[in-house]
Structure formats: structure tokens, C-alpha cells
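User: Working on a comparison across species. This one is 5-hydroxyisourate hydrolase from Isoptericola peretonis. Can you predict its structure so I can line it up against the others?
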Amino acid sequence: MTSHITTHVLDAVSGVPAAGVAVSLWSVGADAAERIAEATTDDDGRVKDLGPESLRPGTYRVTFATGDYFARKGVETFYPSITIDFTVEEGRDHYHVPCLLSPFAYSTYRGS
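Assistant: Here's the predicted structure for 5-hydroxyisourate hydrolase from Isoptericola peretonis:
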């Protein structure tokens, strides 16, 4: 039941890692979401350890503070934040949730 959450954020316009992006991890329930961890991407755009090493199976959310990131760069953006919901399954020990961003688009995939 161990789940280790990591992420990598890349700025597709600049072609560089997105350093200094605030990232939060949430547990999503039927009625509400509860923040369980916070971190900031390093100089390589990575968060290598987000939250507890073990998570119960269920729905979780990673939120990226992209508006603040682009504001620091003096770039207008359509997305003040990016939210990605995903499912933690029993017996899986690692989840990598990357984000490729630009001011007016983003994409993600299940990383390894």
C-alpha cells in the first residue's frame, strides 16, 4: 500500500524546467478535499518527494501554482493553477505525475 508521489514540471515555451512552482497534494473525498503535502519544484523542475511515503487507495489531486510561476516571469497566462486528479491503487508503490506547461495549454501523462 506504499505510494511515493513525484512530479516534473517543464516549461514548453522556454524549453527549460519550471523551477519554483508550488505544488500541493490533496486527498479527495466525496464531500471535500484535504491538503496533505506541499512542495516547490527544484532547479530541475522536480519534486522528488511529495507527501507521505504511503497512501491509502483512493483519489488524489496534485495542484500546480502556474499563475504565480508565469507572473514571476512577467508572462500572462490563462491558467492560474493546474489541477490533476488521479487514482492510487492497492499495491502500487510509485506515482509520477508530470506536467508540461505553457501560458495557454498544458498536458500530463502517467509517468514512470
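For your comparison, note: Residues 4-108 form a domain with the Immunoglobulin-like fold (CATH 2.60.40.180).

User: Helpful, thanks.
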